[in-house]
């Protein structure tokens, strides 16, 4: 999934980015509120992790602008403020959840997974398609109770497709969801990953279909 982290503390930002990247997400990090606000006006993300105290434009203003524009992207608010009024204000403006600094990164990851799950319409972290089971919490997949050997990027591709099995994803969408701004994948990167995952799904009763001229969709046989 593609996640935007807006955090002006370099150490915290790097730690969050590292943890989310290790989970297989494409993570973009911005440290300036104004830049993040402009980015959210033109780019699509599956989740926004937003600090309140930011240079140029604070998190409350970014959140207000986001929701005023009709953008319903799940948002986790990070704040060093412990006052209840501040937390209530964030939720009233449209934040989906919040964490008060300092926080435990295990709790942070759990809240991120819950928001991503909610955003994709999943009731829990297990996705089942035929004999394919995807454990989003532990980043594991299996077919017929046998582990599927997937790289981090391969798992991310499978998770994206399986979380919305009725949807056809264009190659451009998948490029955006799989890679952050720091990486410049080749034009055929998605095709390469689709080919690899297809081979590993053989015999699973599930396939990645090519919808000619549109993109890719996962479906049971």
Please render the helix and strand layout as text:
Layout: E1 2-6, H1 10-22, E2 26-30, H2 33-42, E3 47-51, H3 59-68, E4 75-79, H4 84-93, E5 97-100, H5 105-119, E6 126-129, E7 132-135, E8 140-143, E9 146-147, H6 152-163, H7 171-178, H8 189-200, E10 206-211, E11 215-220
Parallel strand pairs: 1-2, 1-3, 3-4, 4-5
Antiparallel strand pairs: 6-7, 7-8, 8-9, 10-11
Summarize this structure as a short list of keywords or feature phrases:
221 residues; Rossmann fold; Arc Repressor Mutant, subunit A; 8 helices; elongated
How does this structure look, described?
This protein has 221 residues and is an alpha/beta fold. It folds into two domains: 2-119, Rossmann fold; 126-220, Winged helix-like DNA-binding domain superfamily/Winged helix DNA-binding domain (Arc Repressor Mutant, subunit A, Orthogonal Bundle), CATH 1.10.10. It is 41% helix and 23% strand. The protein is built from eight helices and eleven strands. It has helices spanning 10-22, 33-42, 59-68, 84-93, 105-119, 152-163, 171-178, 189-200, and strands spanning 2-6, 26-30, 47-51, 75-79, 97-100, 126-129, 132-135, 140-143, 146-147, 206-211, 215-220. The strands form three sheets. Strands 2-1-3-4-5 form a five-stranded parallel β-sheet, with helices on both faces. The protein has a four-stranded antiparallel β-sheet with strand order 6-7-8-9, covered by helices on one side. A two-stranded antiparallel sheet has the order 10-11. The two termini are 25 Å apart. The model has no long low-confidence stretch (mean pLDDT 89).
